[in-house]
Amino acid sequence: MNKIISAKYFYVVLILAAVGIFSAAFKQTGPNSTSNVPPGADTEQNRFTRVVLAQKLEEPMQFELLKDGRVLFAERKGKLKLYNPTTGKVTVIAEIPVSTKYKSFTGEITEAEDGLQGVILDPNYDQNHWIYLYYSQVGNEAVNVVARFEWLGDKLIESSKKILLKVAVQREECCHVGGGMLFDKQNNLYLTTGDNTFSRSSSGFTPIDERPGQYPRDAQKSSGNTNDLRGKILRIHPEPDGTYTIPEGNLFPKGTAKTRPEIYIMGNRNPWRLAIDSRTGWLYWGEVGPDGFNDTVGRGPKAYDEFNMAKQAGNYGWPYMVADNKAYWDYDFATGKSGEQFNPAHPINNSPNNTGLNDLPPAQPAMIWYPYIVSDEFPELGSGSRSATGGPIYHRSDFKNPKRPFPAYYEGKWFVTDWARGWIMAVTLGEDGKYKSMEHFLPKEMFRGPIDMDFGPDGDLYVLEYGNGYFADNPEAQLVKIEYNGGNRRPVVQASSDKKGGAVPFKVQLSAAGTEDFDRDALTYQWKVTSKNGTPKIFNQANPVVTITTPGVYTALLTVTDAKGAKNSKAVQLTAGNEPPVVNIDFKGSNKSFYFPGKKIDYNVNVNDKEDGSLASGKITPAQVAVTIDYLSEGYDQVVIASNQRSVDASVRFATAQNLISKSDCKACHNIDKKSLGPAFTAVALKYKGDNGAEDRLAKKIISGGSGVWGDAAMPAHPSFSTNDAATIVKYILSLSEKQTIKSRPVKGSYSLDSTTKTSPKGNLIFRAAYRDKGTKTAAAQTAEEVVVLRNPIVQVSNVDRDENIEFAPGRARALAKGPMSYIGINKVDLTGIDSIEFAAGAFGAMGPALGGTIEIHLDSPTGKLIGTTPEITPPQPGGARRGGRGARAKAGIGEVTGMHDLYFVFVNSKAKNTDVTISVSDIKFDQKL
């Protein structure tokens, strides 16, 4: 959890550059990189299957795998849970009382990172049944503890509790708890602890505030303190009586003045998931870094997260160094003046909050380090929020007869992940255990807050996903495993239905369309349709028609089996007993494809529901129907928006922004109407309500970064973020101040887009009508909607739906027609009220003049009814007139044509050869009758 806190405090919105990350699949860069595609890599990604084991978890933190396939995992609020693969169920085996609150610097009692952080089995669990928990103990004593319990059967024996170790903490201000645990082959227990330091008052640089009363804001008290257990990786040897001894080789020999002998690694900010290479015994971990986004002389470097390795005990620099020993300045928070830059070879801790040695061991550099922006050294890690998590090192020999071992290509690689960015990387290590290269593992997969990873006894990679909200029971929080199948692969199943519900008798077409088997095996299909308490009905075919006569909620489970017996399943839910409403928007003679600024659009919404009645009859009132009309300047994805409608009063106004946010990691720090790490979006909207310049300033801040508005934290820069996208998101956030006053439009009326509105060729005018019915006693309510998108009457050729013998200029800015006959096409165009079509066309190719020709307009096919032809478009003549050169417009009248048609624009020049360019077109304009 603590690692997520340092996934940074985003106070408007931070967008993960997913394209930049995932387009680098198998790309190796950074120090010592040798190639773009790793030789010998198994690029058949379909051989890896992501299997969901348990869903809707409650802030899961760390898990432990048992030999029989059960999975024990800890949740932050104190629940210890067990997943049983035999039953597929999750049970609670204990609920530990834990502290989860702290008193913030403003005096506010709020949620902390504290809680139940870690769980691990004793190496001899089969004999002694001991497990260890790391958690924040309740009570007046501010401590985090390592406690040992006996665990027999399904319940923890709480009376067996023995506290091995206490880590004294401050609970005045957050953050950084650590909490990862690991045993080595000598049965030594490793524990990570965070620096327990409030860092948001440090402008993203090192928190070394030595002023009186600022103890919680000085990491020199903890990470840089040789006499403190915080900001460390501890190594102890648990003893049978519930105590521990100190193994040889820790950083400070037992008895050394002003030191703690438990310390193995010091100088950590928030170390996370530990791994030990079973071949070498070397230690690896992820390290969550600070929040700054600019290098500043007198303060220090910008922020970096790290992946580290240690062959022996050492100091890893924090709070004096970060990344590859980039040093901070000794900044005086009282005077605002900077002293000397810290020396990695000889760091000195002179803080009044230090109880340990002044002279510290030399700082060790990170193995991998990366900032908010794309890293120069490791660009494949992408950009955006950061929260380095770590993960396991794969060795085939660690497993006895695994059913599904990973390919030999991954032997010895370190699998690491990042909670905020959602990727998994496979890091290749050299003989010296250091970085050689890395590549994306499963680059098409996106994980939601991956917080722990490990390999199980069958060779599968297990991933615990916390989800994307912070301090929240995220619906996407789940436990999954990734199976590798080197032999026969299970079918990939797709299941769907033509209707989700209806009145009884409810007739529904089930479909297995899209199901495939990568081994090309013959498949058999079985649908099992059942209600909660009913007897299942079996249909042994791919696409059966099913009639349900009894009201209720049904599950239709499709199981597909290949010729070798491998199976896979997927289900759809059906509701019988309530016919879905039908919603329709009638445009009463207006064009249903295009909007025309300044032109009136008449509309009328019709709603009919079998059980509720109709809007026309008055049994459904206009107040029950949500109608919205909105203009989006930067495109529209109807499928995405339709799937995002959560309620009938949800507006599609800022669907583009919602789509961007849903694909990003901003939910880690923001909720719509509740404070998280950052302010609620509604709070941002209210703060800037009435501020006419806020939209522009906030959009620029998303791109350039900023700090000081919502506290001391810095919001990082996002230079790769487009101005349009930033502005779209800001508009959405600021609109939330009007949330309570947004009203549905009339179900019948007229609308016109102001002729002074600056429209975009990419813009869309969106009409949406939705109705949620009342449901029945046996069936839940259902929502239906119609969304009609009217596009700009100028259609860019980059948006055509089909083409033949066309070469596109870079960016698809122009279509270059080649040969005697070629075409471009647009699907489903309403020609009602259209009297001509105009082309931005010319007789120019990519390198100069082209042959020219005419453009014919055909209905429904390239040889369909001819409804219009442009005048001949000719190349420019030296010193003479031309008709249709670069930038000219060629117009064709189409006569009295109405209705919806596919349009084909055919380029004709009977004298042209197949390779000759005839005409280039950049856009197509549909002109309305006057």
TrEMBL record:
Cytochrome c domain ranges (all copies): 645-737
Keyword field contains Repressor: no
Annotated segments matching region Disordered: 201-228, 867-887
Domain of life of the organism encoding this protein: Bacteria
Post-translational modification (record): Binds 1 heme c group covalently per subunit.
Pfam family, one: GSDH
UniProt-annotated binding residues for heme c: C666, H670, M715
GO molecular function: electron transfer activity; heme binding; iron ion binding
Residue intervals passing through the bilayer: 9-26
Keyword field: Electron transport, Heme, Iron, Membrane, Metal-binding, Transmembrane, Transmembrane helix, Transport
PANTHER family for this protein: ALDOSE SUGAR DEHYDROGENASE YLII, HEDGEHOG-INTERACTING PROTEIN
Name of the protein in its database record: Cytochrome c domain-containing protein
